[in-house]
């Protein structure tokens, strides 16, 4: 069994992080996985530089893994190798140039606003017209719906409607296939012994769900591409969503485009959703960070609930150093891709060590990002301030680019990282502007769940009660958040939500001819009375 039971229990990221900090190593740690299969964990800067940059194309994602996840991820950029990968990346890069991604910030913000407004409306639904002491919400579910809509708009120029519709088929499908469960784990292990085609034919509910899910996603992507062609929107110069760029490049057949779209859908939402989930966990555990962040947000950003018309740009977000520090620290300490995998496709070297063809290696962002050697004695603490201090002490740094591995480095680094950082910043800023967050169980220590991304196994639950509302005395800009329950001037967007909550509001008598309405909240008891 090798070290497999340990990995299964604590998650490979945590085990490798502990070893990195306790076992003397030169950036490579050898261990034994299931059936004593040899693995080399890559946890030091020199070794990482060789694997990710200098000898990048000497290593590939294992064929078995590519076949296994291609029906969900598509055989797109994530799974392409060698020359095919180089060509695809070149064709897709224009969509991720910063000059383009920065134009997406107003959309990131408007989707973040939409999420917070929907969340507020949902408390109300659960709480029978008011905040309830016994209702909690699982953050990852909301995060996933938000990031799915964001990739829908920024990636494909389409509205998926996942934020507003909890039953949305696309988001339900991803939830069901990303839920690994015991059967998924066992099938994963059996794939070391039996061919995939055989395992996929076993009459198991899991197999059935995966097949249905992958067929649905493929059909969804195919019809999105067709409708984009029919709309003829490619003709417009301004169309720079990922799909338009891929179509305009002329380098992809229609089926290739389907694969690329599947890749960006999956890679582009699950990861950022995990990051946002960890962010809410981290700020809930560190109220002083949350308060400092809220003060900065309060100084720079409009209220996400009540101010529907203002536009937030990349320049505004970039004026917020503490927000940037919090996001970076979340992504450092809770890297959504904890460990990844490669196999040497030829004899090569890593940090001067001979590596025979066929060796399996595991670059481990979770371990590197938590390395005491690289980050100091407080490496395992959540301290956004380190990013502000770092700048000042640049000269004393270890002088490496390979200490922050969240998006990897080199030709196989995350192509979507500027996109991800932008959306995470907007979502987190909107969240702290709308809610003061704490955990339902203040002592909750999450067990990290492996799988496609590392996230808390049991999710992150925050309660909804009146104490979650932002205190307007402390944050003057957010006065209106509190007052949404009393008197608020709302835009058309909020109205759509709030009218959804039948019977909870009535028109104020003050001025019913205004384009926006002044609403007063009716006490839930009065609603019940009127229903008698
Ligand atoms: C916080 C969010 C994100 C994190 C932590 C993250 C992390 C990563 C990592 C570590 C890889 C390399 C995996 C490997 O090669 O083993 C990767 C690759 C990739 N990511 Fe991301 N990602 C995030 C968001 C996104 C977004 C928003 C998109 C798309 C809009 C995206 C698209 C991709 C693609 C297409 C690849 C494959 C790149 C290639 O091989 O050339 N990711 N990501």
TrEMBL record:
InterPro entries: Cyt_P450, Cyt_P450_E_grp-I, Cyt_P450_sf, Cytochrome_P450_monoxygenase. It comes from the Eukaryota. CDD domains: CYP_FUM15-like (cd11069). Its cofactor is heme. Residues 520-532 have a biased composition (Basic and acidic residues). Keywords: Heme, Iron, Metal-binding. This is Cytochrome P450. The keyword Lyase does not apply. One of its GO terms (molecular function) is iron ion binding.
